[in-house]
Amino acid sequence: MTSTAVIELEQSLFDGLAAGGGGAAAIDALRAAQVNKHLQLIGFLLERWPGPASERDAVVEALDRARRSDPARFAEVIGKPLVGGWAAIAVRAALQGRPQWTDAAQLAALAMVAGAATGVDGEATIPVRDGHASVPGLGVALIDAYRAVLRVRDGRLKVHSDGVEVSARAEHEDARWLPVRRLTAADFALELDDVDPYRHGHHVPPALRLPSAEVATWQTLFAEAWDLLGRHLPEREVELRAGLRTLVPLVEDGLSARSATIRHAFGVFGLTRPPSAAEFAVTLVHEFQHSKLSAMLDLMPMSDASDKTRYFAPWRVDPRPLAGLLQGVYAFVGVADTWRALREVDALTDEAQRQFATARMQVHTGLTSIEQSPGLTPAGRALVGQLRLRTDSLLAEPVPPAIAHAAEEANARIRRQWTERNGADLN
To answer: How many domains does the chain have?
Structure first.
């Protein structure tokens, strides 16, 4: 169960992505590459199946039948973001010589979900973790057992165990079924996944099941944030619509909002509930920038992994490797661009001016260090060249002199503090 397709970005798509944008066509190309990657990882795992060969062969047959039945819907299921999260975790365990049956059996569950999407009947044994039987992308059934059977009949999924039957229906919640919730705005929807067993890896624990009232608050903020993007950054809204699929709520510390993107999972990120619609909009753009660059890195290296130089990043207190600094600069180009556009909102103008001035100065500082690095590959240099053009256009935007001066002073102060903390400049 592998893919031999070679995915390459057309030059025009690369240039758009390299400048910090891209458009729907570029995002579609990145998503196609992720499907290809997921299939390759699945093939790797099937070769190292930790259970009976007959069980593995049944999974291979179910996946192949689903793909032949409806290739487009099959790709949509296999390309889901948290499939990438699961695959990375499962492959890491296999490489360490510790393949887990629960990881392998998650693939059996995924095959049944693909079957339901493509009209293929079947059944498979799936794991039950702490009373939760995962149906990938749809939710979890609450089962008092160690294993269960996930069955597909006429496009409907049901979990069976010891005479208990639980219907796995999206957006239908009962005493035994916890579906993945959705955040909606206009004709767009995102999954708000607080149940998937492979949703961790963000350096902050994922939140447990959110109360309905909390989900309602997320919904209100998301709808307002999406409206801001649609009215003031339509090109960003198009990108997000094309590629962002899932949000994972993270545990809150009561001090500050946090967000993070998993390197191997395109189109998903974790976050605590943003304090405002504007911050939500900025966070959506910020973290999707990380997803875009990570997906590009799956296709081409941007930096030399042997380069050990460490750099100053205005948004971090620790010295950063070149790859980390490049990620930060790429993400903050999106942050600066978002605050630039939000200056048009009367209630946000003053705050947006300050945030825009700060973010563009941070991008300029980080990008200048990258431009001086010998560790960039040819693709990395092409990316940086496009980022410089975009950054210069941001620097050319008029900002009140006092705000621009304050951003420059803040940047210099942070650099002094960083030097005091880390010693002499490393770059």
So the answer is: 1
